[in-house]
């Protein structure tokens, strides 16, 4: 059995608040929870939007906090990230692409593949020819080894009015690529700040709440002009993989009130 911890969208800032939330307090609570209850996990995967503003100070502060995790962590890029500063801030596996934050990690239960869907200067994501070619080769080479994909931007619309305009551009090509490989067993995605599950073609997927602030369900329909974070508590995912089967628990790591600022 391989046990993984999954957190998403910490939107870390070294100072100030983000949409009425304190990113330091929320990340501290997540790390404390993980170290207290899940130190037996083999790694923590973080599906993007590592920082909110993409400054050197924010990455340095984030790295300092993440280094207190009792397990190795695997950071990924989201639309709020800066790829250059990201690469300067984190040590990435030897399997990482030269120009992107895309890499693999072998586990006894299969291959973890962390993807880079960041598009410079855009809130929408992309998966370009270079990244597609790398993933195609990785999946071919995997053969019958089970593969578990982690990425930031969903390649399909998930029924969220605003964020669905900021999904992966040309997501259908990505869907066509992964659905052609039976080794792909599960897709884990960030970006939407909500827990959603379903299938992409025949492949099961899950999304994750943000460590920081949550997106409301689409009722009533909202836009960034009307957006207000919902008063829902954050959570992490606790993933167990056994013989290609995936079990994922949504695990609330603190009360909603932790790190919520008034005024
Ligand atoms: Fe985010």
TrEMBL record:
The keyword Hydrolase applies. InterPro entries: Calcineurin-like_PHP (IPR004843), CNP_phosphodiesterase-III (IPR050884), Metallo-depent_PP-like (IPR029052). Residues 3-195 form the Calcineurin-like phosphoesterase domain. It comes from the Bacteria. Keywords: Hydrolase, Iron, Metal-binding. Belongs to the cyclic nucleotide phosphodiesterase class-III family. PANTHER family: CYCLIC NUCLEOTIDE PHOSPHODIESTERASE CBUA0032-RELATED, PHOSPHOHYDROLASE. This is Metallophosphoesterase.
